[in-house]
Design goal:
The complex is a heterodimer of chains A (164) and B (204). Chain A is mainly α and 164 residues long. Chain A has 2 domains: 1-80, RNA polymerase sigma factor, region 2, helix turn helix motif (Rna Polymerase Sigma Factor, Chain: A, Orthogonal Bundle), CATH 1.10.1740.10; 116-164. Chain A has helices at 2-27, 31-48, 58-73, 83-87, 89-92, 100-113, 118-128, 133-140, 144-162. The longest helix of chain A has 26 residues, at 2-27. With 204 residues, chain B is mainly alpha-helical. Chain B has 7 helices and no strands. The longest helix of chain B is centred in the last third of the chain and has 50 residues, at 154-203. Chain B is elongated. Classes of the chains: A mainly alpha (164), B mainly alpha (204). The interface between A and B is large, with 71 and 55 residues.
Chain lengths: 164, 204
């Protein structure tokens, strides 16, 4: 039983690991912190995997566990953002068949997101991942109306940073 | 098209992480040691229960009771000890129940709320213990003064009270500082994020 569960977890996690990587890129600003948070997310997903009942998609469930780990369980502060570390993000998101303007946009986007606080980061991340408001408000534990209001404010804030 | 829509497109087109992990690497990571604050709060909480309770083992009960008898506090100590243990037991259960409620699958707000509640149980336990010790010290001092009142002059009485107060305050001060550092270090980020979420629910 345990072996089956483990195999299933490894399969699910391997397929969806990009969710965790994206969250790590948002919440950390250097490679060692990225790996540290990634490790904690992996531990938490595995520890709670027996509680995953399959009534929702694994990815939906993983968004919640990974975000909660980044916001609540992971202790290291993300306030001190070093600029040279952000430019290092490029090494992670470089691909040969990738549009150059989009690459620039992506870099600027990550840089802007790094200036937001942890809750705003979560909102923007869920928006970028195209999550419905219902899921966003349930994940964070706030009402849909509040999620909408805060989302609009955060989007405005992000726009101002991107295009001052 | 909205400015953010362009960026959103770039976001969804971003290539996957270049250094993707294999199943074996994920297996290794999943079985490594967690460094989550929940784990630390649990460990520190248990340590506080153990350390504060084991302090009593360093006291020679027989001699202490003999001293209490001399100043006529034997019954008071006996019953207050029973009461204290009942209260400690209540705190232990509450701590465990709150700890079990912490679930990462919960919403962010509930999760943070439960973490803070667990930590508050330990804090209240420590406050209870310190108050209990302070009351015992006060009662013992007053009783000592009462039984020895014939041999002591007013200045000596005030000196005893002053010294006891000073020692208590100093002890509490050092402990308070230690707590600020320890939990400040652990919970600074969590508290900031919790405030941010709470603010969202109250202003809109």
């Amino acid at each position: 039983m345990q072996k089956n569960l483990e195999a299933k977890f490894l399969e699910d996690f391997e397929k969806n690991q990009n969710i965790a990587h994206k969250i790590c890129r948002i919440y950390t600003s250097n490679k060692s912190a990225h790996n540290d948070l990634f490790q904690e997310i992996t531990i938490q997903v595995w520890k709670n995997y027996p509680k995953f009942r399959g009534d929702s998609k694994f990815s939906t469930w993983m968004y919640r566990v990974a975000l909660n780990t980044a916001i609540s369980l992971y202790r290291k502060s993300t306030r001190r953002v070093k600029t040279q570390d952000i430019s290092n993000l490029a090494y992670k998101i470089k691909a040969t068949d990738y549009d150059d303007t989009e690459e620039q946009q992506l870099k600027a986007l990550y840089k802007a997101i790094h200036t937001l606080n942890d809750i705003e980061k979560a909102l923007i991340f869920l928006y970028l991942e195209d999550k419905p408001y219902k899921e966003i408000s349930e994940t964070l534990g706030i009402s849909s109306v509040n999620a909408r209001v805060k989302m609009n404010r955060t989007k405005e804030k992000l726009k101002n940073i991107l295009n001052p | 098209m909205d400015l953010l829509d362009n960026y959103k497109k770039a976001w969804s087109n971003q290539p996957e992480e270049t250094s993707k992990l294999s199943a074996i690497e994920i297996y290794k990571l999943a079985h490594s040691k967690s460094s989550s604050i929940v784990k630390w709060i649990f460990i520190i909480g248990i340590l506080e229960f153990v350390i504060l309770n084991s302090l009593y083992f360093f006291v020679d009960i027989k001699t202490a009771m003999e001293e209490y008898r001399k100043i006529g506090l034997e019954n008071f100590i006996y019953y207050s000890n029973i009461l204290a243990y009942i209260i400690i037991f209540y705190f232990l259960i509450k701590f465990y129940v709150n700890y079990r409620k912490i679930s990462i699958v919960d919403s962010t707000k509930n999760l943070m709320n439960n973490i803070l509640k667990t930590r508050k149980t330990v804090r209240n336990y420590v406050i209870f213990n310190l108050t209990y010790v302070a009351i015992l010290m006060l009662v013992a001092t007053v009783a000592t003064i009462n039984t020895n009142s014939k041999d002591l002059n007013t200045t000596q009485v005030f000196m005893v009270i002053g010294a006891t107060l000073l020692a208590t305050l100093l002890f509490l001060g050092v402990l308070w500082l230690f707590y600020q550092l320890l939990y400040g270090f652990l919970l600074k980020k969590l508290k900031r994020n919790y405030k941010e979420l709470a603010k969202l629910n109250s202003t809109n």
